[in-house]
Fold:
Amino acid sequence: MSRNSPRLRVALLVNIIAPAKMPLFSGLAERFDLLLLHGGMESNRDSWSDAEQKISGATIKRVWGWQIPLKKMDGNISDRRHLHITPGFLWHLFRFRPDVIATNEMGLRTVLALFYGTLCRKPVWVWWGGTLHTEHQIGIVRRMLRFVVSRWARHWFSYGETSSEYLTSIGIPRDRIVQIQNGADETRFSTNAPPEFQVQPRPVLLHAGQLIPRKGVDLLLKASAALQKEGLEFSLLLVGSGPDKETLEQLVRDLQLMNVHFYRSLRSDKMPGVYRSGDALILPTLSDVWGVVANEAVLSGIPVLCSKYAGCAKELFTEDSVFDPEDAGDFVAKLRNAVVGRLPKPDRSRIKTTAEIVNRMILAIEESSTRRQVGTVHAEQVRK
Structure:
């Protein structure tokens, strides 16, 4: 599409506006007439409340609907999440009349988008982040929705290789998938921010994330206790909020761990200083579609020890930086490497920049719109 052509009207449907995606949304808004529709702020994301005000160029609206807190089970792992029931998306789509729609899941929101796209003959992109691991024990309702959406949708963005693997496993042809990454704002995390915390003794092992069972923080504490019993001296810096805080603090006492520091979640503009407070980031997650804190740590210049259950693990790190948090021996051995400074140095070349991600999405969106317009013109000529 020519730069002089009228701006495409693009509607982007999300459940919640994540700070990590602010530069991506702003980049899309520079090229498109972008309407960003969201379901509102979840109660467990208090540090994300300022994200909406920091996106430039887009029209942003919260749609009508409900957020229902859920305690979900993934195998033996309990987790607190939210079910978004937001029929208001459809009203906004009919009012805005987009040329292209993008939506980032395979549930009700995407069904509404596909209904509109089918009725109005507009392309719909499903922006997907789940992996074979995160989706392996989903219930029957979600399996049915996955089946319907996978047969209905024709255009797909995937977070990365692990998300593409899942999409092909449910029958989506690889040539329909545009693989990008789940990115972070490299300009923000490349700045030389002062440390947010002054923690001693060094080294400081950092965990940044919610304090919930799925994040594996209890396993990090147990592996750390094993190393301290060997006589290794280091600090743990745990930055995050969540319902498991008191349980984890009690576990610290039970394990007789030393030098453990808990701090609540901070706003996104404070996070560069958080990463520069640590000597290595530890990501012990038991289930994450990506793990954008890993991107942020690498961009901040600190090494990362990443769980194999994070969607980003294979794409961003070598085997020396990846471990199995449920294998106590593997966890302790790799964590020992982090303490003594033997983790590989961060490799920024594995991370796609925001500009690369935005440009790839722009090209795909414009091409799908052009194809649909050509197909519509051809159909009208045939009817005549």
Q: What stands out?
A: Residues 377-384 have pLDDT under 50 and may be disordered. The longest helix spans residues 354-383. Residues 9-183+352-383 form a domain with the Rossmann fold fold (CATH 3.40.50.2000).
